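Revision sheet: structure tokens.
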Amino acid sequence: MGIPHHVNFNVPGDNNAVSVNVKSGDISSLRQVLISQGIPPEDAKELSEIVEAEEPESDESPLGPRAKIWLRDKLKGGAAAAWDMGKSAIPTLIIETVKKYHGI
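Predicted:
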């Protein structure tokens, strides 16, 4: 198992701070954080499998091409509207959480 990374960030357009713990390299940890932050289990599983299968593009852009397409499609397709968080918070949550999964 990886080293636990604590993630703190502010939700865009909101006065709420989000704090999560992700272990680097631990796909189960990534999936659980996504679920705990309001992403449905099926979507969290799908995204975590994509993240596990591909390398990050860079430290600033931790999502690979398939993960970016997945996120774009979820945001445009309206699926994200059913998630238990504001639409503006979703990209920040996913990017920051994936960074910690990759140990960035």
